[in-house]
Amino acid sequence: MDVFEAAKLVVGIDTKSFEEAKARQLTLTKPPYALGALEDVAAQICGIASLVPARTPSRGALAIFAGDHGVLEEGISPWPMEVTAQMVGNFLSGGAAANVLAKRTSTKVLVVDVGVALDLVPTEGLIIQKVAKGTSNLAKGAAMTREQAAKAIQVGFDVACDLVLDGHDILIAGDMGIGNTTPSAAIVAFMVGAPVASVTGYGTGISSELFEKKVAIIESAVSRTASSIDRSDVLGVLSSIGGFEHGATVGFIIGAAFSKVPLVLDGVISNSSALLARELSPLSLQYCFAGHASREVGAKVANSALGMEPLLNLDLALGEGSGALLALGLIQGATDLLADMATFDQAGVTEK
Ligand SMILES: O=C(O)c1ccc[n+]([C@@H]2O[C@H](COP(=O)([O-])O)[C@@H](O)[C@H]2O)c1
Ligand SMILES: Cc1cc2nc[nH]c2cc1C
């Protein structure tokens, strides 16, 4: 199905089930709202499932969208481009942080090559849907064409729909792309209208000198974009300052919402992508959870612009879906609590 058509068909979560879940929380053996944000999470899961109590999501799937970035030639990351492809190899052989965390929650790990510069060898667990061999350098002009942006979004949407058809009941957004904190900060600055220096982070670890350079590059790309593109023009924004991972993540979010399954956002790449998904489908955000507050400052700015409270704040700056995978355990726990705790009546505990 065409993702842009699907985006228009996304419906909000079931508010009746959401409210019913909130009411059920009050009957459980605990002071009102003693489980805090976990109560909100469980109600949101019930709203998504249209069922109270909802079944606990237990068949998670992590999609790690991988792509390269032409802007790397400006020296905005200390790591060379080939690390993107090398880390894809690491994901496929099970040695990355994401693999370790996914194992704990029996989450399937899928890598989607949406724009890695090097050719990858077809392997089990790898989907090759290369839009191009890396983006163009956004410091010099548009990062991609509008057609490429649309293709990246479609890839992410198709991956989400296929995973749900395969029986996965919660989706996790992950990313891998050396240099991708630069387009992420550009997207946040442009979409939120915040000063670039206030949304730019240190990525994989850059010097303060390099940080100044990163900010200057993003400032110039954002002002180039602002002169001709409107915030509601998602293909315009992506083509001007985005990455293929961002495009795919936009589609992944819409795919989860269209398929009515929850999705856990990870760090600054998925948070910035959610700002774009909101333009195509505002209701799609009702299916999203902010897994964590990344160390990357733009992630925090994006989450607050989205009105989302991150579940964890662990100073993570890894990507890959690592923070979202950790949050999955909390989402599962929250859903279990609503379903399995005794009520005051059942336990013979006096209500206040
Ligand atoms: O998830 C995040 O918020 C995050 C923060 C900093 C770095 N990363 C990861 O590090 C890479 C991008 O960092 P950089 O410095 O090369 O732009 C990319 O592979 C991301 O997955 C991810
Ligand atoms: C080693 C390494 C692992 C990563 N995982 C996600 N982004 C990454 C960036 C680097 C450099």
Automatic annotation (TrEMBL):
<dbReference type="GO" id="GO:0008939">
    <property type="term" value="F:nicotinate-nucleotide-dimethylbenzimidazole phosphoribosyltransferase activity"/>
</dbReference>
<dbReference type="InterPro" id="IPR017846">
    <property type="entry name" value="Nict_dMeBzImd_PRibTrfase_bact"/>
</dbReference>
<comment type="similarity">
    <text>Belongs to the CobT family.</text>
</comment>
<protein>
    <recommendedName>
        <fullName>Nicotinate-nucleotide--dimethylbenzimidazole phosphoribosyltransferase</fullName>
        <ecNumber>2.4.2.21</ecNumber>
    </recommendedName>
</protein>
<dbReference type="InterPro" id="IPR003200">
    <property type="entry name" value="Nict_dMeBzImd_PRibTrfase"/>
</dbReference>
<dbReference type="InterPro" id="IPR023195">
    <property type="entry name" value="Nict_dMeBzImd_PRibTrfase_N"/>
</dbReference>
<keyword id="KW-0169">Cobalamin biosynthesis</keyword>
<comment type="function">
    <text>Catalyzes the synthesis of alpha-ribazole-5'-phosphate from nicotinate mononucleotide (NAMN) and 5,6-dimethylbenzimidazole (DMB).</text>
</comment>
<keyword id="KW-0808">Transferase</keyword>
<comment type="pathway">
    <text>Nucleoside biosynthesis; alpha-ribazole biosynthesis; alpha-ribazole from 5,6-dimethylbenzimidazole: step 1/2.</text>
</comment>
<keyword id="KW-0328">Glycosyltransferase</keyword>
<feature type="active site" description="Proton acceptor">
    <location>
        <position position="320"/>
    </location>
</feature>
<dbReference type="Pfam" id="PF02277">
    <property type="entry name" value="DBI_PRT"/>
</dbReference>
<dbReference type="InterPro" id="IPR036087">
    <property type="entry name" value="Nict_dMeBzImd_PRibTrfase_sf"/>
</dbReference>
<dbReference type="GO" id="GO:0009236">
    <property type="term" value="P:cobalamin biosynthetic process"/>
</dbReference>
